């Protein structure tokens, strides 16, 4: 800009010299008022120079301002776009976590409260994001605000509660139909030998070394650990321990290690109340004389039921399905004894004190697991030994559980006890072994088809957990049958 002004000044100054030169070269004009004319022309030149210089200066300043302002606007627009997508990512992540874990969320916040996160940053992305979650009754508002330099954007997601009449519940702390992992062990787990987890695994643990894989152990999926846990290996702070000769975690955990967004919680549902005011029937014995089968076709309460041969329990018909209620102090099915469920409906079998199943005995061997729900309130160990078969769903209130030999349960288990053991070639084939307060041990060639929820897990030998879910709640009425879905979005 200065150079332009100098050029203009020099040109104008040069042109203004001509009148004075003509006076010098023409003596006849000397009489003219040389001084006044030259001075006037010199003054005019100075005014013109200053005017042009001022105009050019203003023009240059305007050009510079427009260019700078345009650059600032471009940068702000980019920052605003980055802030929007960062805010949307935060809102979307929170919404999907709540949808997958409705009961866990409800346990955290209660009915009317607000959660505010710390500012969250993403590696390689400028700025930070803060998520605020507000619950009012059954409605949830997620407000995610992100700031990148001076640009601020907010995205809101609104969730509404929906009920699932089919019995579908939440995946965490409530219903079990949406559990998406083969194994969840809140305090960690050990895999030693050649055990295998076929599916994803997860834990809330952040304690160094609290998850260990040795030998030929393998997780055919991803492993999620606590939000603050160190996902690296071979460090003093590493949550996961693998042999020192291998630095490639995918040799052991196919999907690698990631962090949970928040800890998961799994709570026991309330153990149902035992039925009262049932007809009192004393003790019932199904032996070999008189000739079997024996039949129970009505509700009732018994001191003891002992089965050495065949006991048929009659339910209803397709046009009139029946929920049969039987309460017994001690249930024994032994030798080759068997309990057969006939008809359509459900048997709810309450066992107060002791349960014994041995030999090659069976309960509902050829029937659907949905026909039988057993609630065991005794303190003695609940055992499925040898070659026995139990087809149904069982809730063990306090006792330890032991599956031995080739004993099998076709169905699902809820355990409120402290210990669960699967040994030998035992099999649990269903959807879930739900024991959030228990230490679970699997050894030999024991196998769980479904999901295992536990406090701590130890697997050895050739034990296997194979993820399986059919998307239904195997214990309807025990878990909350609701969830959340997105009702609308907004941004500002």
Report strand %: 35-45%
Q: What class would the helix/strand composition place it in?
A: alpha/beta
Number of DSSP helical runs? 4
Number of strands: 34
Helix percent band = 10-25%
Mean pLDDT: 84
Low-confidence parts lasting 5 or more residues at pLDDT below 50? 1-24, 28-39, 164-175
Cα end-to-end separation:
43 Å
Radius of gyration: 40 Å
Features:
492 residues, alpha/beta, 28-stranded parallel sheet, six-stranded antiparallel sheet, 4 helices, 20% helix, elongated, disordered N terminus
Molecular structure report:
The structure is a single chain. With 492 residues, this protein is of the alpha/beta class. Among the domains are: 78 residues; 95 residues, no CATH class. Helices cover 20% and strands 39% of the residues. It has a 28-stranded parallel sheet that branches. Strands 1, 2, 3, 4, 5 and 34 form a six-stranded antiparallel sheet that branches. Helix 3 packs across helix 4. The protein is elongated and about 140 Å long. The two termini are 43 Å apart. 35% of the residues are buried.
Please give the structural blueprint:
Layout: H1 2-15, H2 17-25, H3 34-100, H4 102-109, E1 112-116, E2 120-122, E3 125-136, E4 139-148, E5 151-163, E6 183-185, E7 189-193, E8 196-198, E9 201-202, E10 211-213, E11 218-219, E12 223-225, E13 240-241, E14 257-259, E15 283-286, E16 294-296, E17 300-307, E18 310-314, E19 322-333, E20 338-342, E21 345-357, E22 362-363, E23 372-376, E24 382-384, E25 389-391, E26 393-396, E27 401-403, E28 408-410, E29 413-415, E30 419-422, E31 427-442, E32 447-461, E33 464-466, E34 482-491
Parallel strand pairs: 6-9, 6-32, 7-10, 7-32, 8-11, 8-33, 9-12, 10-13, 12-14, 15-17, 16-18, 17-19, 18-20, 19-21, 20-22, 21-23, 22-25, 23-26, 24-27, 25-28, 26-29, 27-30, 28-31, 29-31, 30-31, 31-32, 32-33
Antiparallel strand pairs: 1-3, 2-3, 3-4, 4-5, 5-34
